[in-house]
């Protein structure tokens, strides 16, 4: 991968990121380095990098796949979810959370019914990574993976596709709104216990409890981040 880049001081973060992609020879479908490496290579902050990534995603220049990374978009502007820009601009965070509350508990209920032993193991591994995260970036990556592993555990490709679409919109909407007041989640972070309840319900093959646990978790997240259930 490219060594740390040198850019004129008056160039902004978006210009730096565009130049990095162009000068690095990245082709459509290529995966970009992790956020941590981009922060180091470009000499930018996490928040400014995410704003630049958000802009490029709205333009169709990049697209994100939860659990896999950020990829360069196709030259013809096509991407897995072509209406992401419009949706992310029109939706409020509360509307986004209401959509999650409508869909993800039902997905979790299906996971409790259909998850294989390997799928349950993947959910537990993602849960543990979130619990042990040493910063918000690592936590958010593991949390994304936790929720996606649940969707994968349904064994239903349509439900997984619906989840991926929802999650892409969520990331575009939420990244413009959430402000963190600490370097990493505290040991008492409420999502940890909520994740445990979700895992317990799926492991016990209890669809009603799984639905309730995910609904309670998302309600708690909405209250904590946006002040509305």
Q: Strand tally, please?
A: 2
Mean pLDDT: 84
Q: What is the number of helices? A: 10
> What Rg, in angstroms, do the CA atoms define?
18 Å
| CATH hierarchy: architecture of the largest domain | Up-down Bundle
| Residue share in β-strands | under 5%
The shape, in one word, is globular
Write a concise synopsis of the structure shown.
With 229 residues, this protein is mainly α. The chain has helices at residues 13-23, 35-42, 46-59, 84-90, 93-114, 117-131, 136-153, 157-174, 190-203, 207-226, and strands at 62-65, 69-72. A two-stranded antiparallel sheet has the order 1-2.
Task: Describe the 3D structure.
With 229 residues, the protein is mainly α. It folds into 2 domains: 13-72, Arc Repressor Mutant, subunit A; 84-226, Up-down Bundle (Four Helix Bundle (Hemerythrin (Met), subunit A)), CATH 1.20.120. It contains 10 helices and 2 strands; from the N terminus they run αααββααααααα. The protein has helices spanning 13-23, 35-42, 46-59, 84-90, 93-114, 117-131, 136-153, 157-174, 190-203, 207-226; strands at residues 62-65, 69-72. Strands 1-2 form a two-stranded antiparallel ribbon. The radius of gyration is 18 Å and the shape is globular. The model is unreliable at 1-11 (pLDDT under 50).
List its traits.
229 residues, mainly alpha, Arc Repressor Mutant, subunit A, Four Helix Bundle (Hemerythrin (Met), subunit A), 2 domains, two-stranded antiparallel sheet, 64% helix, 3% strand, globular, disordered N terminus
Describe how the helices and strands are arranged.
Blueprint: H1 13-23, H2 35-42, H3 46-59, E1 62-65, E2 69-72, H4 84-90, H5 93-114, H6 117-131, H7 136-153, H8 157-174, H9 190-203, H10 207-226
Antiparallel strand pairs: 1-2
Helix pairs in contact: 1-3, 4-8, 5-7, 5-8, 5-9, 5-10, 6-7, 6-9, 7-8, 9-10
């Amino acid at each position: 991968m490219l060594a740390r880049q040198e850019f004129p001081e008056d160039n902004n973060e978006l210009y730096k990121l565009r130049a990095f992609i162009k000068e690095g020879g990245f082709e459509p479908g290529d995966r970009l380095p992790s956020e941590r490496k981009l922060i180091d290579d470009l000499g930018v902050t996490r928040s400014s990098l995410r704003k630049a990534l958000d802009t490029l995603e709205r333009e169709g220049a990049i697209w994100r796949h939860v659990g896999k990374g950020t990829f360069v978009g196709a030259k013809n502007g096509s991407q897995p979810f072509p209406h992401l820009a419009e949706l992310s601009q029109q939706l409020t965070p509360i509307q986004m959370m209401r959509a999650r509350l409508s869909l993800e508990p039902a997905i979790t209920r299906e996971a409790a019914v259909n998850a294989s032993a390997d799928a349950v193991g993947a959910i537990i591994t993602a849960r543990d990574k979130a619990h042990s995260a040493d910063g918000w970036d690592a936590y958010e990556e593991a949390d994304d993976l936790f929720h996606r592993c649940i969707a994968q555990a349904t064994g239903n490709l349509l439900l997984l596709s619906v989840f991926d679409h929802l999650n892409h919109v969520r990331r575009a909407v939420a990244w413009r709104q959430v402000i963190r007041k600490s370097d990493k989640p505290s040991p008492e972070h409420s999502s940890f216990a909520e994740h445990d309840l979700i895992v317990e319900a799926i492991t016990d093959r209890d669809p009603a409890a799984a639905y309730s646990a995910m609904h309670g978790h998302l309600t708690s997240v909405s209250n904590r981040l946006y002040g509305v259930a």
